[in-house]
Amino acid sequence: MTTTEQPAHADVGFGRRPRVEDARFLRGKGQYVDDITLPGMLHGAILRSPHAHARIVSIDTSEAEAHPKVKAVITGATLESLKLAWIPSLSHDVIAVLATDKVRYQGQEVAFVVAEDRYSARDALELIDVDYDVLDPVIDAQRALDPGAPVIRDDIEGKADNHIFDWTAGDKDQTDAAFASAEVVVKQDMLYPRVHPAPLETCGSVAWMDPVSGKLTIWCTTQAPHAHRTLYALVAGLPEQKIRVVSPDIGGGFGNKVGIYPGYVLSVVGSIVTGAPVKWVEDRSENLVSTSFARDYHMHGEIAATRDGRILGLRVDVLADHGAFNNTAQPTKYPAGFFHIFTGSYDYPAAYCTVKGVYTNKAPGGVAYACSFRVTEACYLVERIVDCLADELGMDPAELRMKNLLRPERFPYLSPTGWEYDSGEYPRALAKAMEMAGYEQLRKEQAEKRARGELMGIGVSFFTETVGAGPRKHMDILGLGMADGAEVRVHPTGKAVVRLSVQTQGQGHETTFAQIVSEVTGIPSADIEVVHGDTDNTPFGLGTYGSRSTPVSGAAVAVASRRIVDKARLIASAMLEVSPEDLEWDRGKFFVKGDPSTAKTIQEIAFASHGTQELPEGVEGHLDAECVYDPPNLTYPFGAYICVVDVDKGTGQVKVRRFIAVDDCGPRINPMIVEGQVHGGLADGVGMALMEVIAFDEEGNCLGGSFMDYQLPTALECPSWELGETVTPSPHHPLGLKGVGESATVGSPPAVVNAVIDALKPYGVRHVDMPLTPAQVWRAMQGRPFRTDLAITDE
Amino acid sequence: MTTTEQPAHADVGFGRRPRVEDARFLRGKGQYVDDITLPGMLHGAILRSPHAHARIVSIDTSEAEAHPKVKAVITGATLESLKLAWIPSLSHDVIAVLATDKVRYQGQEVAFVVAEDRYSARDALELIDVDYDVLDPVIDAQRALDPGAPVIRDDIEGKADNHIFDWTAGDKDQTDAAFASAEVVVKQDMLYPRVHPAPLETCGSVAWMDPVSGKLTIWCTTQAPHAHRTLYALVAGLPEQKIRVVSPDIGGGFGNKVGIYPGYVLSVVGSIVTGAPVKWVEDRSENLVSTSFARDYHMHGEIAATRDGRILGLRVDVLADHGAFNNTAQPTKYPAGFFHIFTGSYDYPAAYCTVKGVYTNKAPGGVAYACSFRVTEACYLVERIVDCLADELGMDPAELRMKNLLRPERFPYLSPTGWEYDSGEYPRALAKAMEMAGYEQLRKEQAEKRARGELMGIGVSFFTETVGAGPRKHMDILGLGMADGAEVRVHPTGKAVVRLSVQTQGQGHETTFAQIVSEVTGIPSADIEVVHGDTDNTPFGLGTYGSRSTPVSGAAVAVASRRIVDKARLIASAMLEVSPEDLEWDRGKFFVKGDPSTAKTIQEIAFASHGTQELPEGVEGHLDAECVYDPPNLTYPFGAYICVVDVDKGTGQVKVRRFIAVDDCGPRINPMIVEGQVHGGLADGVGMALMEVIAFDEEGNCLGGSFMDYQLPTALECPSWELGETVTPSPHHPLGLKGVGESATVGSPPAVVNAVIDALKPYGVRHVDMPLTPAQVWRAMQGRPFRTDLAITDE
């Protein structure tokens, strides 16, 4: 039982409660994109480039068109005439839906076949004859800017290199001075390799452009249906009021499903061309090879400190590999603000960062996979280099952290990059994690094992996230601001519906958003229906990513619910013939102060509002309220993690034995769901630390094209998680909530890596790049770790 | 070109414009209930009583259940256990979904079969063995209260007769005094026979109770989806937030589709019992025999006047035949307020009315078929008796009307029954109709023809309607008040959606409501999508009937649109950095007063509201607005009609040669649609006057069970309508609109009947009951007309 948990009672408000959506998920009755079948529906398949870099000489589709079951073969030429040649992208890059001049990465879309069934569409792909003039690929980000490197984006006028941008943050002079005065400086290169969110469900869409009504309906695997709709309207000029984007049940997103993929556009084009609904669903290999990857940050960190462990400064230099295009959360034309809280959770007097973006012949990265503005990469860098510093100083890494963590009195804290952390009690969280772990005892055990020659490691990490994208006037997507709408309608019988601008990819919104309404209005959450994921049915908002559902949309729902209560007070005052101030609110009912027997329940008030009750001046009928919430600031959840590993000396195999995670995301709507989110993120972290990487060979072949190659953690690799919490409410969220969706994914990889490197201390290892596969660990023990992003070894 | 018509321009605002919905209707692409097909859907059929009055001794369903394709056979017993035994009725009567004790009219529902296909379901009906003990039926309303008449409603405790209520209105003493002082008194009995709205589409529903989510979706032919939802929740206890009622394209309603029919409930029960979706669709005969009829008013009128034609008083006595139950707009427990403006359009010093309701063994009537609170029947009575008076006085009926019509200075006019007519310029409308008709010339022509022995008639009628049901605190359905919600959302690109609580049965709401938004906001109407007919998608409201869409829901939309403009002004003031008062509104844009070059269009403002524009204090993002409109009063459209007929002396065949209709419904949103509505209503009037009647034989068999028996007018029976308008805005509607859906149906039957009787003047005929079929006219010429409601003649 943790602090925000409440005793089980009549299904009202916050508390541990089964997920509503599991009724269908557990029975296999979810409705995913691939479950949607429309009368007369056709099926599409995409022809993809086998080359990483090649000029397209010609495309001959005649044989495919002659296939008896093929209805259309679409190339770039078809798209041009429909004004749908370019992806409505959230970045400012210009990305062709189908390549026409060159292919720039393996798996890039070249043509689209629409046929009567999926099998015929696939078969016909083989009948398309593309003549490629193969070019040298640029695979190594560190060599992308070499003079003479092939220019990938020769489609951009005047572009003669692979450079995208340079960006800096912090105060260079101040940081140089801090380093000059330091007693100790530690430097370390490190790679956060390409990883893939690998959601359970791949991407897909069903598009239906009704030729009679002109209405375009797109069911697709998107985390941001409203953004998609407006982008189609802005970029392709389709009439916004005639576009409906539906995000049905989604089998995981993790940022992989934020942007618009060529396949979505192609299903739309397919429907326009054939006059029939068209379904397109990726297979696993297509998802892994061609949809947005994450990370691929080549980082160099330097930390300056006093000999007694007071951190003085941080210097970071990053080479960001964007792949061939700038996708989704990876902007082109403005600096990558996405590394903005690179300083993490510590109290640095000075910090400075540079980021350089480059193009390579790889699929576009930039997916917001628990990225929360690149906090994942930054947190990894900081937490690793703090461990390197501890090693250098001979200090316990937990002690070094405790010494330098931001103290509660520093909040609201203005970071060296100008971001204001809202609230935090960092030392309390770390102390709690250490207590839960039995930290001292663990160190004793480690010492004993080391003495016996056994490799046990203890890894500590601390993270601060920055989530809840807004405020609207500071952040935008193609000019659209980050405000979320919410509507609460109480029906005549006192049941309610809440409509959200965000939607779920499995996070349990149908449960938690009902609980928010319930918490405020007192209506049992079982009486509240949550509607989301359908632009026809929900208020505008830019979608679910960056853990923003609870901080922004949750706030919108809370405010709308409060407006319901405010309106209910006025109606109750008319019903009871007293002034509104004379009423007392006892969650779910109003009564005349001092006389609970006069109570009018929210249900009675709802009926009266739809009935014939005389209403006070200026109060309209029905019990509805709306809110468009513009967050005054981001929220800053945080946490302290401790990981305990054993490493097999002979094979390099890492066993995560224990994992203690103390998360502080403010009050918890439904502690069970928070724990589920944390469990998932911790498994992510184990995967990224130990197993996952998308590497490329010299020809630019993607080496992670199946789950045989791209390893994901299973229950076997995960320990029984040990979770704890502290509660530091956000001062600016109406209910103090902060969001937790990405926390564990951000915080856990450095804990695991720190633990493994701690285990390898006897071998003098200070750093090894992820993933720490048995081979990598074994080679690190030999003093010659791999470079994990390329299939190039020194063997 | 009439006064409110506007020059064709950029698709903004009111004006003549093609109907948006015709794109699908004309191509046969409408989606009606019977077009809905769900996976695994089953089909239901209803077993109906062959008797008008019989006790049910037993029902044996075993053979039907054994049919290999039958999935369920449902009787009253099944319903009891599901709490769905009673129809959630809009009246306060208790009507069984399936008869258990007795059947009370021919066609009453007795059992329901659910089978794999429609044919098997129908076949299995014949396998159900019902043992009936046949009772004497009560068919003649005028004998229903005879001592010893069989008691129909012995299900009501203590009920020993067929009496329902007595109701009076007006001042009896004052009226008696007026009559005592009169120089002339004319008395006339008349029948407004049973007629049927006979919509093109019969009733039907598809119900799907999803056993996983618990969500009940009902697609049904209803004019009032929200009312249906709440009634299911109130009566059956189903959770309101889990019920979705969808009214898809509807092929005409005319009041026939307001209430809940047993078939709807049975499809719900069928789905609950079988776990599959269940479709039920009536055939034509079922629709004619068992769904709500209209009228069946046996009326006695008396009018008192001075010798020079000043009307002094009106006395009305009505026997209202309700059939076996009180349905929909036919209340049981409170007086029939539905005859409330029985005095019509004239300035009576005194009026008094009594209405007595009785049960008969006929299908329940009470449908709101252009009933607008029984104005249809009242208008007929008044317009006929005024003609009788003119005949008695030897005055021209138009002249008599002109003399007694309410004069403009009498408005707002408080009627003898206490209703406040909002606005009117009655003499202007009549004068315009007479001018259009060339009234004097017509009378000359008639005189010439009469001289030649030809039968030509000229009929005049004037009507006042009372529509736009509200205000919410004065009118209710089971406690639910008459307020309508509307929501307008302007998307980022400046396109908009408007969500209505009402929906259409063919009236063109998708066109006209977009025009209302356009009129106020300046957004082109082609950029505005209208959403309606789906409780999941639209704000609460009690539906479309009594011509209330424009007066109530149209007002809600207008007010919400004004709120959009008000909000846009504030946002524009921030964009232009001036105070809101310094802005000028030029429909569609704001500019700084005196400088049109500064204009910000509504589209630019919409984008800014969704973007990063700083907003004024208290203004939330997005450009949305809502309104729940509670009308301060009803609206009172009116009109003057003139009909010219020729009657064949040999056969009694009536030919409507001309029909002049001047309607005043305030400003016209789309004159073309208004004219279409008027055309339809005029055809209704020709049908009712000349052809339509649902009669019964002595055993209670319904004699109007097919379109072979129940004659509807076709283009052959209709002249080329001559339409005119006057414009008297409603002072309390935000745009002055009044509603026109029922006007012509109310006003036209007396014009036709008056014309025929005028033609028959040479035969000394003062009154003949509708319908004026050739046989009836011929017999009237012989001095012995039929009683049209019974299949009993003197032959």
From TrEMBL, chains A, B:
Cofactor requirement: Mo-molybdopterin cytosine dinucleotide
SUPFAM superfamilies membership: CO dehydrogenase molybdoprotein N-domain-like, Molybdenum cofactor-binding domain
Gene3D superfamilies: Aldehyde oxidase/xanthine dehydrogenase, a/b hammerhead, Aldehyde oxidase/xanthine dehydrogenase, molybdopterin binding domain
InterPro entries (UniProt xref): Ald_Oxase/Xan_DH_a/b, Ald_Oxase/Xan_DH_a/b_sf, Ald_Oxase/xanthine_DH-like, AldOxase/xan_DH_MoCoBD1, AldOxase/xan_DH_MoCoBD2, AldOxase/xan_DH_Mopterin-bd_sf, CO_Mo_DH_lsu
Keywords assigned by UniProt, alphabetized: Molybdenum, Oxidoreductase
NCBIfam families cross-referenced by the UniProt entry: CO_dehy_Mo_lg
Protein known as: Carbon monoxide dehydrogenase large subunit apoprotein
Lineage of the organism: Bacteria, Bacillati, Actinomycetota, Actinomycetes, Micrococcales
